[in-house]
Design goal:
By secondary structure, the chain is mainly α. It contains 9 helices and 2 strands, in the order H-H-H-H-H-H-H-H-E-E-H.
């Protein structure tokens, strides 16, 4: 025989284990309900969820449109030149930088040839020789960096060229934003996707409520029956039978975990529709990701600065090679 208090402690522990096994799903639903402002009634979840997601989608599209338009305006005002758009101006810079690099390489070869001849024939003054010995390593280093900048510049244009064209052209920007607008989310689409998912959630919640109810009923029955035993205690066989009842419920609760995780993941996927579309087809047929336009603006700045740096190296080589 087992003392009543000890037997009750064992079944109370099992009853608590059932609540713990159900807690994670309960908590996830509570957080979803709070985050999306869903009502208490299950009947109101789908329409409220759909209204909330479509509202968030409207806010997302408005914010994204305003951000891209602001970036485009800033880029065109900052980098556009009189009568020339920002992108044509950048392409002119790139061509000029490539020309400067080629000219700098030619001048560096010429300078090294003149220096070597001057040293060999001893036609340099000491001052000229000292000056060139100091200048040439720096110029060689800058020229190597210039070549690296040329490679980087080409890589930037290859990767971000479509974004540059969109930001620098009002016409192309309008095309992208119109395509973006056509991808707006409707309440009906959200409801269609959410209805079967929430039906599964509600069915799982009812089953979970039933398991908790069963465990509470068992706990009450066992406590009532065993306390009536007085000092006689509880037979081991009776306790084992009771424990099996709780463990069966625990097994059912744990068996639900994978399905619960799956259905919650599906609900999260539908909620992510609030931030769609995330990409659209650009005017040249390439896919552009809307959240990358801010980075594209930064890359445009880097490209322009790189062109200036390459031009300066060319000027340095020209100065050094000029008698």
């Amino acid at each position: 025989m087992i003392a009543v208090d000890d037997a009750l402690a064992i079944v109370h522990e099992k009853e608590n284990a059932i609540r713990i096994a159900c807690f994670e799903f309960d908590q996830a639903l509570k957080e979803m309900q709070q985050d999306l402002g869903l009502p208490t009634s299950e009947d109101g979840w789908v329409p409220s969820f759909a209204s909330r997601i479509t509202f968030l989608n409207k806010e997302y599209r408005r914010r994204m449109k305003n951000d891209i338009q602001a970036l485009s305006t800033r880029l065109r005002q900052t980098y556009g030149q009189s009568g020339i758009g920002a992108m044509p101006a950048l392409l002119d810079q790139i061509n000029a930088a490539a020309t400067c690099q080629a000219e700098a390489e030619r001048m560096m070869i010429q300078l090294e040839s003149v220096y070597n001849a001057g040293v060999r024939e001893k036609t340099f003054s000491v001052e000229d020789r000292v000056l060139l010995r100091r200048v040439m390593p720096r110029l060689q280093h800058e020229l190597r960096e210039c070549k690296e900048d040329g490679t980087k510049l080409q890589s930037i244009v290859n990767q971000w060229g479509t974004y540059f064209h969109v930001l620098s052209s009002e016409q192309q920007l309008s095309q992208v934003l119109e395509t973006f607008h056509l991808g707006k989310l409707t309440k009906g689409v959200v409801e269609e996707k959410a209805t079967p998912i929430f039906a599964r959630i509600f069915a799982m919640r009812r089953e979970r409520n039933d398991m908790i109810f069963q465990s509470s009923r068992l706990g009450l029955e066992h406590e009532t029956a065993w306390l009536a035993h007085g000092n006689r205690g509880v037979r081991e066989r009776e306790l084992r039978r009771a424990v099996r009842q709780y463990e069966d419920i625990i097994a059912r609760a744990r068996a639900q975990h994978a399905a619960q995780t799956d259905v919650l993941s599906q609900a999260e996927e539908v909620a992510l529709l609030a931030s769609t579309p995330q990409s659209v087809e650009g005017p040249d047929g390439a896919i552009v990701f809307l959240d990358q336009f801010r980075e594209a603006y930064q890359q445009f700045k880097i490209a322009s600065t790189t062109c200036t740096s390459m031009h300066n190296v060319g000027r340095s080589c020209f100065w050094a090679a000029t008698p």
